[in-house]
């Protein structure tokens, strides 16, 4: 019933500007996420949270030096980013890319159809796609004008977030990783993210959410919270852990882990 299993994961960032260009960021991450659960990662700045999401996405700037990641029983690390998406993994980054000259509706339809094709499902024709996307856009209070524009170009932060959540709900992933750290989301955008995750929730959907936002956690009500510090998961707790961390900071847990 485990959907994602990370074992002793070590990863380095390849930083060409540095003298010693391999810097180890993840130093033995262990994390198991069963189907149907919502897990959260919190942790001090620079602890490797975004690095973990990049490694899981297959970003070329990061090199895995040890350990394994199993996704639905398959070796995730040997899969290309496209294969990861086809297998049901969805990743949302802190800063969604802008694509000038690429129509948003066409972009979304291409993304959805490539995943449907890989899953052996029928591709959506433009008419059926538009019907589906308009339905979802309405639920997300997302103006259909945004579908006619170029991908994320000139979108406000909240609009980019809505577009990302729209893409996620269209793709119907079985696992979503959302890195919300430092993104300065307003209250509406937080609510959109929460609604998007909640709308997908089922016994076949899991998520890993990286966030500092207590308000997002209040909306989402995660099953577990993990603390990542210095490239390792040092603590696991229930949803109440976030308030405890807000009150006392990370100092005590990090100190105990160092001993
Ligand atoms: P977090 O998301 O927890 O704040 P990050 O994963 O972004 O942490 O960063 C972890 C550490 O790795 C930091 O010290 C950061 O400076 C370093 N790092 C991350 N990406 C790069 C990169 N592309 N080049 C150099 N250093 C990086
Ligand atoms: Mg950071
Ligand atoms: Mg980060």
UniProtKB/TrEMBL annotation:
Keywords: ATP-binding, Nucleotide-binding. CDD domains: ABC_FeS_Assembly (cd03217). Pfam families: ABC_tran (PF00005). Residues 4-255 form the ABC transporter domain. NCBIfam families: sufC (TIGR01978). Belongs to the ABC transporter superfamily. Ycf16 family. This is Fe-S cluster assembly ATPase SufC.
């Amino acid at each position: 019933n485990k959907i994602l299993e990370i074992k002793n994961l070590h990863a380095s960032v390849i930083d060409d500007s540095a003298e010693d260009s391999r810097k180890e960021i993840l130093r033995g991450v262990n994390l198991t996420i069963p189907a149907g659960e919502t897990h959260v990662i919190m942790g001090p700045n620079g602890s490797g949270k975004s690095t973990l999401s990049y490694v899981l996405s297959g970003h070329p700037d990061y090199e895995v030096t040890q350990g394994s990641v199993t996704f639905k029983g398959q070796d995730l690390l040997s899969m290309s980013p496209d294969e990861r998406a086809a297998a049901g993994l969805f990743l949302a980054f802190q800063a969604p890319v802008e694509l000038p000259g690429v129509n948003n509706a066409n972009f979304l339809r291409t993304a959805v159809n490539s995943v449907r094709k890989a899953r052996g499902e029928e591709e959506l024709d433009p008419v059926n796609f538009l019907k589906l996307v308009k339905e979802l856009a309405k639920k997300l209070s997302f103006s259909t004008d945004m579908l006619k524009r170029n991908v994320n170009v000139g979108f406000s932060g909240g609009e980019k977030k809505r577009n990302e959540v729209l893409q996620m709900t269209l793709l119907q992933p079985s696992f979503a990783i959302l890195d919300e750290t430092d993104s300065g989301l307003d209250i509406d955008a937080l609510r959109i993210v929460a609604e998007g995750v909640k709308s997908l929730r089922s016994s076949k959907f899991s998520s890993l959410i990286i966030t500092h936002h207590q308000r997002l956690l209040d909306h989402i009500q995660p099953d577990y919270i993990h603390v990542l510090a210095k490239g390792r998961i040092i603590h696991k707790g229930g949803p109440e852990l976030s308030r405890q961390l807000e009150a006392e900071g990370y100092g005590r847990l990090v100190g105990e882990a160092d001993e």
